[in-house]
Amino acid sequence: MIDSRKWARLRTVPTDTDFERMLREADLRVTRPRLAVLTAVHRYPHADTDSIIGAVRADFGEVSHQAVYDVLRALSTAGLVRRIEPAGSAARYEARVGDNHHHVVCRSCGIIADVDCAVGDTPCLTASDDRGFTIDEAEVVYWGLCPECVAAPPRATAAGG
Amino acid sequence: MIDSRKWARLRTVPTDTDFERMLREADLRVTRPRLAVLTAVHRYPHADTDSIIGAVRADFGEVSHQAVYDVLRALSTAGLVRRIEPAGSAARYEARVGDNHHHVVCRSCGIIADVDCAVGDTPCLTASDDRGFTIDEAEVVYWGLCPECVAAPPRATAAGG
DNA sequence: CCATTTTCTTGAATCAATCAAGTCCTGGCC
DNA sequence: GGCCAGGACTTGATTGATTCAAGAAAATGG
To answer: Residue A98's pLDDT is what?
Structure first.
């Protein structure tokens, strides 16, 4: 299911040592499950919790689903990963943090892609009327169809990614 | 819990007959549960399913939760109501449809307010790079704190509305 | 008023996520 | 290098929102 060798050939990515350092710098204890989850999120951007559990178990061994949930929460809180929840989908996670990028979601197959914001670093923060709210983030989700689904709509609705 | 008389004094809103006409025009059969749900969504914008069930039962009588779920789906599909799902919240519904407005969500109490888009009728539809997707909608959610929560953060986290 | 088709009721099931209690392990200390 | 305390992981149950399924009831067209 996962060919990490092939993947390693294709991209330059954080090593296990990098992940360890990231955890330490975030004041998080370094554990195998955490390294495995961090690796999985980097390897499979926008994966949902279940896929991450699968990936973690594939290249590390049995880990409880609860541990993965705990780790994902810890990493999100620490800012090492970002949690996204497109309507109609379970929570998904990505390792690209710190910039304010947005997402395109395919209505048909559910696949998600990143989109840089055109308006600068903290974009869109200007609502026409903020209703008195103190706004700190503008989240943008573009909905449509991915190239594959435009060409040939798949069997079922939503999912996968 | 619901003072419809007071509410009626304050706003001019669709009457029961209007709702009936809306349903017929959408090729939906006119039933008491549907009228009740449609009324509730108009009366309580951004309410979640559970609140809608409560409102429907309060001014109509016992209705199964399943019926409300079914009706909300039918109304959403027909475009008579719009379903929104802010991260961390259950599905919510609003009757303001047809325009592309956005939402501000309070991180503390969960309350939602409408925000008109500054950029025109079909705003934000221009992603910096659409990744080959065919985009048909841009959904914007502003996150922050509502005026009340800025002044005095409430007891618990998230919810209400 | 009847037939057809849709909608509603009842009750169970699913899925994602969380809670809780106990065991295990990491990191700091001697 | 071993010990301790608090944090992290395992196991198992539970919640909450939503959906599935089968039959009863009601709405529309004739």
So the answer is: 87
Q: What is the extent of the structural domain holding A123?
A: 99-151
Reported as a single tens digit per residue, the pLDDT across B119-145 is 544 445 666 678 889 998 889 999 999
A:B CB pairs within 8 Å? 124
Domain assignment present for residue B158? The answer is no
Closest CB to B117: pick one of A117, A128, A150. Answer: A128
Helix then strand then coil, in percent of chain A rounded to 5, is 35, 20, 45
Q: Higher pLDDT residue, B2 or B152?
A: B152
Whose CA is closest to A103, among B121, B129, B84?
A: B129
Q: Are A50 and A90 a contacting pair, CB within 8 Å?
A: yes
Name beta bridge partners: B83. B93
Establish if B90 belongs to a structural domain: no
Q: Which residues of chain B make contact with A101, given a CB cutoff of 8 A?
A: none
pLDDT tens track for A51-101: 999 999 998 999 999 999 999 999 999 999 999 999 999 999 999 998 878
Q: Give me the DSSP letters along B13-69.
A: ---HHHHHHHHHHTT----HHHHHHHHHHHHSTTEEHHHHHHHHHHHH----HHHHH
Nucleotide nearest B20 (Cα, C1'): D27
Same domain, B19 and B74: yes
Instruction: List the B2 CA – D27 C1' distance (angstroms).
Output: 29
Nucleotides of chain D in contact with protein CB (under 7 A) are: 7-12, 16-21, 26-28
